[in-house]
Amino acid sequence: MGHEHAEGQELLLRALHDAHAAELGRFVNRLTGDHAYAEDVTQETLFRAWQRPGVLERPEAAVRAWLFTVARNLVVDDWRSARNRHEVGTDAPPEQHQADATDRVLDSWLVSEALSGLSSEHRQVLVHGYYRSLSVREIAQALGVPEGTVKSRMHYALRAMKLALQERGVTQ
């Protein structure tokens, strides 16, 4: 029984790797710009999932969200500990806590990653509407489409964006 169990566990880990490693690796590589580090984080994330079989019994979208959240947290924790190793102690700490920019940077990367997965039509209306702060009328003129089309695309773009972010572990 022990040998069969070990074989089953190895098959589970291989299936987990085949299903998620490439996408997780690309995600972490975009966050960090370090391919070797991305592979390490990907392997650690998959190993943690393998250690928690209950996670793998969830629906596919929930498994993906869990994996992206774990990978993101591993990167954040590593960055914070690296920053702490390089900090110099002082007898007079600042009176006010300074906001940690790490979460803000990672969130912007997550948004960029999610945007890149949208269709060009959806990406265009979001970029024009949210990043350039154009009105529906201005977007319609810029893209040469009716205002109703802009409203429709915006609705579906926001829905797709929300789904893409949830799959990456951003919940709302």
UniProtKB/TrEMBL annotation:
Protein name, as recorded: RNA polymerase sigma-70 factor (ECF subfamily)
Family annotation (SUPFAM superfamilies): Sigma2 domain of RNA polymerase sigma factors, Sigma3 and sigma4 domains of RNA polymerase sigma factors
Keywords on record: DNA-binding, Sigma factor, Transcription, Transcription regulation
Cross-referenced NCBIfam families: PRK09645.1, sigma70-ECF
Occurrences of domain RNA polymerase sigma-70 region (ranges): 18-83, 114-162
InterPro entries, A to Z: RNA_pol_sigma-70-like, RNA_pol_sigma-70_dom, RNA_pol_sigma70_r2, RNA_pol_sigma70_r4, RNA_pol_sigma_r2, RNA_pol_sigma_r3/r4-like, WH-like_DNA-bd_sf
CDD domains: Sigma70_r4 (cd06171)
Sequence similarity: Belongs to the sigma-70 factor family. ECF subfamily.
Superkingdom of this protein's organism: Bacteria
